[in-house]
Amino acid sequence: MKNYKNTLFYIVIIGGFSSLMYFIVLHGKNLQIGKKIISLSSGENHWTAFLSSLTHNLKHPLAILLAQIITILFVAKIFGWIFKKIGQPTVIGEIIAGIFLGPSLIGMYFPEFSSTLFPKESLPNLQFLSQIGLILFMFVVGMELDLKILKNKAHDAVVISHASIIFPFALGLGLAYYIYNSFAPEGVEFLSFGLFLGIAMSITAFPVLARIVQERGLHKTKIGTVAITCAAADDITAWCILAAVIAIVKAGSLVSSFYVILLAFGYVLIMLKVVRPFLKNVGEIHASKENLSKPVVAMFFLTLLLSSYSTEVIGIHALFGAFLAGVIMPDNMKFRNLFIEKVEDVSLVLLLPLFFVFTGLRTEIGLLNDPYLWKICGLIIIVAVVGKFLGSALAAKFVGQTWKDSFTIGALMNTRGLMELVVLNIGFDLGVLTKEVFAMMVIMALVTTFMTGPALDFINFLFRKNEDSIPLEISNISKYKILVSFGNPDKGRGLLKLGNSLVKKMNNNASITAMHLSLSDELNQFNLEEYEDESFTPIIKESKQLGQKITTYFKASMDIDKDIVDVANKGDFDLLIVGLGTSIYDGTLLGKILGFTTRIISPDRILNKVTGKEKLFENSPFDERIRFILSKTEIPVGILVDKNLQKTENIFLPIYDLNDAFLLQYAQKLIHNSNAQVSILDVTGVVKKNAEIRELIRAIEQKAPNHIQLLNERAIEKNPFENIDLVLISISSWKKLTEEENNWLNNKLSLLIMKA
Predict the structure, then answer these.
(1) Beta strands 750-755 and 637-641, pairing class
(2) For a tag site, which of 123, 345, 350, 644 has the least CB within 10 Å?
(3) Which of 5-19, 457-471, 654-668, 701-715 has the lowest mean pLDDT?
(4) In this structure, are 267 and 375 located in the same domain?
(5) For the chain, what is the domain count?
(6) Helices 417-429 and 90-101 sit at what angle, rounded to 10 degrees?
(7) Is the pTM of this model over 0.90?
């Protein structure tokens, strides 16, 4: 009765008010008399009006900005993914994406498309939006600086850092003296031109350096700590110098800039002595997600904006204010983590690519159309590399580092990345750099960042004695070694249970290593150890419940699949166990570019779930990740499809051909270590025909009577083994079973798919 009342009420309300609106519109037409209303009578005019309206909408500033953002993000992701695959930081790819979309390529060969997508009148909107992204990014950079580490390592770090600044700064001034007459803009003093070239030569990209240190597993080593500390000290010093340089350039002289610098010093003093203690008290009270209310978040963001606004008004650029606001944030790790998570995704994923492309739109490599210009460009690169690399390396050697560590520090400190582009754009906006010099300096930033990875590899090659990418505690193990590689900690528990069931009674003759790799661009240097602890806590807890000792291995990785293979092969393991997940984009180019994870369900599985026809493997063959691991590993691999695997007491092992005989060794391990019952299905009669396989089965039976049985049926009826815990099957046999669509291979069975 209630449903009828609701329906009647709905009809009366909708119908009644619709009639009222129609009545008002009908009588409202009488008001048009004398208003000179133009009406369209022909279909052609209506179509023309529609096209005109559509064209107008496409040219609206908001529509253009949204189209630019969509294009920039898509192209930046593609180039970032490409450069990531060749072992370079994604920032390099995103910078190249900007140059690709700018006048150097798209603008040169497709000028009409470029002028439509990036009309000159739209560029200020793009610039301001990218500046907001930079402000948020510099805020994160400031928060990621761990001042406690800086204090503990201050002496060595300051010596190396300041040497790595003063040496290239001096060379940059010398270079400015050489090229001033030919390349300085009209009306720009030598002091301004020389100072900007000096600071551009001496900058280091702290975020990129921190990522590289993570990816190479150096963050827990002495050299990694020293490098990050040096970069942190370098960042603070360089930004202070840059603020002074901007003040001098804007003021026009050293004397005039004194007032600006004095005002800036007062601002820094207030931030450190007044604002910082206040924020520290607030941070201690609101250090958890539950306590971090929206008004508190608003207060901290207001601090960021006020700091940026103050430095912009003072005359030392808003980015310095954002950086200092990040530095004075409360030291509480949990608090900084929360804020970094809130800000980082928006700044890094959405807004920073806009800055890269805006820089690319300014970079006209085509202006370097003369051999002399390329000679100057080469000279700039040489001065930058010699100044930063040698300055850092020699200083590191002087304070007691080995030659290998000194060269490593030099190579890392020579990384310029995004920070260089920030300095160059400031110089370009102030009119200190011409378009030609700007293009040369952008190329220098790309080259010095690109060369960091190869330089580190070359240094490791030169000093390769006793070097190994695998931790010593892993490589020293000389037993039956199982490597369990997990992404999701909860799924890792199932993998660990399986590994334990293969070795639990082998006492000290076997070991299990639990490995977790995470993409480096999803981590920040500040919370790396906390993230590692969170990832391994469920695994360590499970290992204690199982009574299984494990070795843990964590690494921030640029290419997880490749690193899994490298560790498995170089660690001399006997078995690698990984989990299988399905994704809507797994195994596709788009999935790799967009970075979607296995948390997203496959559309096939959604459809099959709705229709009630879901089968275990609708993503056959394996996705790209599994195929890569299978093709590159030199050891046996087990792929676990975990359907809530709790125990391994009843094992089902189908044999299709002679190649499946290797599975019997794993069946034997399960029987010995887990007291398992193994049922072998002779699917094609190959066991019956082959005496060697029968002998292997008989040998197992003699060692463990009543624990193994051979089924001779050539076909299996629907679900004959209700108590099966795990299906042990080879890859080739699994593919045959899925092709035949055997009914017993249902959703409830956990599988271990093996590659010999």
Answers:
(1) antiparallel
(2) 644
(3) 457-471
(4) yes
(5) 3
(6) 40
(7) no
Place of tokens 């200020």: 124
Residue 487 shares a structural domain with residue 573: yes
Cα distances (angstroms) measured from residue 323 to each of 145, 434, 706: 10, 27, 71
Q: Contacts by 19-23 with C-beta closer than 8 Å and gap 24+?
A: none
User: Which residue is listed with tokens 């498995």?
Assistant: 568
What's the rounded Cα separation, in Å, for the pair 119 and 59? 10
User: Could you tell me where the beta strands, DSSP code E, fall in 100-257?
Assistant: none
Q: What is the CA radius of gyration of the chain?
A: 32
Report which of 179, 172, 161, 234 is spatially closest to residue 201, judged by C-alpha positions.
172
Domain boundary residue, one of 413, 428, 462: 462
Of residues 648, 522, 509, the one with CA closest to residue 596: 522
421, 518: one domain: no
**Whether the Cβ atoms of residue 306 and residue 271 lie closer than 8 Å to each other:** no
Average model confidence (pLDDT) across the chain? 79
> Which residue is it, tokens 């009222």?
20
Which CATH number goes with the domain that contains 284? 1.20.1530.20
Q: What is the pLDDT of residues 471-507, one digit of tens each?
A: 544 444 457 889 999 888 888 888 888 888 888 888 7
CB 495 within 8 A of CB 640: yes
Domain that holds residue 746: 643-756
Burial of 714 (0-12, 13-18, 19+ CB in 10 A): exposed
| Two structure tokens written together for 26 | 């009908």
Q: Which residues pair with 335 in a beta bridge?
A: none
**745, pLDDT greater than 50:** yes
Phi, psi values for residue 52, rounded to 5°: -65, -40
- SS in 3 state form for 313-371? HHCCCHHHHHHHHHHCCCCCHHHHHHHHHHHHHHHHHHHHHHHHHHHHHHCCHHHCCCH
Residue 81 in tokens: 């993914």
Closest by CA position to 496, among listed 479, 481, 508, 484: 484
Q: Is residue 126 part of a domain?
A: no
Alpha-carbon span 632 to 564, nearest angstrom = 10
Asked if residue 365 has pLDDT above 70, the reply is yes
Report d(CA 45, CA 236) in Å as an integer. 64
Sign of CA dihedral 434, 435, 436, 438: positive
Tell me which of 462, 483, 506 is where a domain ends. Answer: 462
**Cβ 503 vs Cβ 669: under 8 Å:** yes
**Cα separation, 725 vs 719, whole angstroms:** 13
More confident residue, 521 or 408: 408
Which of 407, 417, 285, 274 shows the shortest CA–CA distance to 355? 417
φ, ψ of residue 39 in degrees (nearest 5) = -110, 145
**One domain for residues 748 and 656:** yes
Residue of higher predicted confidence among 367 and 236: 367
Give the Cα separation of 123 and 378 in Å (integer).
30
The verdict on 421 and 287 lying in the same domain is yes
Q: Is residue 587 part of a domain?
A: no
Contact 567, 552 (CB under 8 A): no
| Domain CATH for 556 | 3.40.50.620
Whether residue 637 is found in the same domain as residue 654:
no
Does residue 45 form part of some domain?
no
Residue 504 CB-half CA count within 13 A? 20
Mean pLDDT throughout 195-208?
85
Instruction: Tell me: do 382 and 275 sit in the same domain.
Output: yes
Separation between Cα atoms, residue 355 and residue 429, nearest integer Å: 14
Residue 102 lies in a domain: no
**Tell me: the pLDDT tens digits for 673-732?**
888 888 888 877 888 888 888 888 888 888 888 888 887 655 455 445 567 888 888 888
Q: Which three-class secondary structure state does DSSP give residue 675?
A: coil
Two structure tokens written together for 154: 């201050």
At 443 the three-state DSSP class reads: helix
